[in-house]
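Dear colleagues,

I hope this message finds you well. In preparation for our joint manuscript, I am sending the Protein kinase domain-containing protein (Zizania palustris) sequence together with its predicted structure, so that both groups work from identical material. I would be grateful if you could confirm receipt.
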Amino acid sequence: MLMSPALVLLTCLLLAVAVAPLQLQAATLIGKPADCQTTCGSVEIPYPFGIATTEGVNVNCFLPGYEINCTKNDSGYLVPVLANTKIEVLSLLVMPRPEARVQLPVASTCYNSTGGVTSYSNGSLDLNPVGVYRISEAYNELFVLGCNTLAYTNGGPAGGRYQHSFYTGCVSYCKDSRSAQDGKCAGVGCCHVEIPPDLTDNWMYFQTGWSHANMTFSPCDYAFMVEKGNYTFKVSDLTMPVSQTMPVRLDWAIRSNISAMSCAEAKYSPNYACAGPLSKCFNSTNGPGYFCNCTNGYEGNPYIVDGCRDIDECKRPETYRCYGKCKNKPGISLGISLLIFIILFTLMMRQKRRMNEYFKKNGGSVLEKMENIKIFTKDELNKITGNNSEVLGKGGFGKVYKGTLEDNTMVAVKESIEINEAQKEDFTNEVIIQSQMIHVNIIKLLGCCLEVDVPMLVYEFAANGNLQDILHGYGSHRLTISLDLRLDIAIGSAEGLRYMHSYAKRTIRHGDIKPANILLDDKLIPKISDFGASKLLTMDKDYTMFPVGSMGYIDPVFYRTGHLTKKSDIYSFGVVLLELISRKPIIYGDNLSLIIEFLKAYKLENSGRAIFDKEIMTEESIYILEEIGRLVMECLQENVEERPDMNEVAERLVMLRRARNRKHNPQNLEVIPKLSFSAADINTNSSTTTLSSLSTLASKEFFDRSVEMDTWSLRENTSNL
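The corresponding C-alpha cells are as follows:
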C-alpha cells in the first residue's frame, strides 16, 4: 500500500532530522576529570577510556577495564596500548558508535623442506581480560593465506554439543607454484570469510593434515583478521608476510565478565554510565551490555555530565544546507531544505520500484499463485532473521541465517543465486519442485522472499547441524555414534534420495551429496539439503552438462564427461556410507585417501576391517559392516551400469537394519513387521505417498532378499541359543 504524499514528506523530515547528526563524529573528545591526560601521541583518549597519571593510577580518569597505557614504541614514539598488553591502539571512538581500532597479530605456522613445523603462533593476545571488547563482525573479515591449509577461529559460549557457539574459517589450496594470482582470494593461495558476532579473541587454529614438504613457494600458513578493505592479496605474501600485525576494529560496550546489563537494567544502577539528560542508552549489538550516544542534534561525549553539546548547523553549511537566513535552534537541524525532502522521497519511491522489479525478475508473478509456498516480504524476512543477525553457515551458494517465525518455529533462511532473465524460468521451476518434495528425509522448503536482488529461501530448521560436523568433530566435540544410529542415518538419507530419483513428480539429481549436505533435526532424523547444484530433469532425459560438486564426492565419470545421472548420486552416497562406517574424512592421517585405502584393503584382504571404525567393530557387528562395505564397493564402480540404483541401496540397508534388530531380539522376530501390498499398491505411481525412513513400498525382489536375510538372522540366533 502506497503512503500518502503528506505522510511521506513528514517521514522524510523525521528521517533527515534524525539521521543528519549521526553522520558526524564527536567534535570534541572530553576527558574526566579536567586533570586527566586525554591524548597519547596523536591519538585522543575519550572517557570512559583514560590514562593512568604519572603519580599513579587515577581511577577517576577511566572506568574499570578501559585503561590505556601510554608507552614508547621501538621507534621511540609515544603510542597508546590496551592496558598491560602490547596491543597498539590506533583510535578510540565514543560516537556515533563505540569503537576501538587496534593492531592485532598475524597467526602463522611455518615448515621446513620435509614438512616439519619450525615455528607456530596462534596470534592470541589477552585483549579481553575484563570482557569489554568484541571483534566487530560488521567491519572485519578473516583471511587465510597458504597452500593446502585450513585455519579457523571460534567464539561464544558453549553451544549444545560443542564448546563454542560458532566456528568459522576457510580452506586455501594450491595445485602448484603458479596457481595463486594477485588480487584473487577465492580459495587458491588465499581465502576469506565473514566473521560472526560475539568474537572475543584473535586465536587461530591451523589444521595440519596436509603435507607441506617441498613447498618453497608457500613455506608458511597465515591467518588473521583485518578491517574490510584494508588488505589485498599478493602472491608474494605467500613467501614473505606483508605485516606481523593487521588493523582490526573492536566493538566495545559498558560490560564486564561479571556483569553485563541492558539499558532497562542499567538505568536503575548507581554506576549507570550515560551521563546527563542529553545522553541516551542503546543496547549493544555485539555481545551483552550497552553504550551511550548523545540525543539527535547533539554531539560530544555522552559518558560525561554536560558532555553532549548542541550542533550549530549554521556553522556547517557544507553539511547542513540552508536557503535564506539560517537560525540555529538547540537540537534541531533547520538547514534541511525542500531539496532534501525531494531527494529522500525520490529514493523511497526508487526503492519501492526496485523491489517490484526484483519480485518480477525472480518469478514472483508465477510463485505467488502457489498454494504450498509462502511469499515473504522483505520486511517480514528482516523480522524473521533479526536483520540477518545470526549466521548458521556459509557455502558456495551463499549464507544461511537462523530465523524465527511468528509462531516461534525455528527456520533456516538461505541466500539463493542471483537470477537474470534467462534463469528466471529455471529458478521458478526449481522453487516449485522443491516446494512439492514432501518427504521426512528431505529438508522442507517453506517459502521465499523475492523482493531482493538475490532471492532468499526459507527452510525448516535442523537443530543438530550436519553429518560432517557430527562425524568428524575433534577433541571434546567428538561424540560416540552407535552402529544403529549410523544405520538409521544411512537409511533415512537413502530414502530421501530414492524419493528424489523415483517418487517425486520429476526425477531430480541432487549433484552434491556429502555429509555437510545431510542435516539432522532434533530427533536425529537425516534430511537431504542444499539443492543449489541440483538439476531438474524430465523423466525422458538421462543427463545434463553441468559438472559441479565437491571434490572427493563427485562421480569421476560425471567429472570427466559432464553427464549428471542418478548413478552420479549413487557414487557420492557410496562415499558417505564409507565415512559412516569408517568415521574418517576423505583425506585423513598423513594425506591418505579414504577411497583409495578402502579399495586397496578389499583388493588385498577382501575385507574392510582395516578401515572400519573401531568404536563400532565387534564380532556381532562385523557382518553388517562387511555388507555395507560391499555395498560401498558397488556404489564406487567405475562402470556406472554396474552401480546399484537408489531403490536397491535403500532396500539393502533396510534389510541389514532388520537383520540386526532381529539378532538383538531373538524372542521377537517381528521387530520391524513385514508389509503386505496388493499388486495395485506395488505398481502405484503416486508422488505424494509418505515413505517411512525405515520401511518403504518394495518390489518382489526386495521381499525375496528379505527372506534370505531372515534365514541368515534365524541361523545366527539359533547358534547363539
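For the figure legend, we might mention the following. Residues 1-29, 536-540, 667-721 have pLDDT under 50 and may be disordered. The two ends are 76 Å apart (CA to CA).

With kind regards,
E.M.
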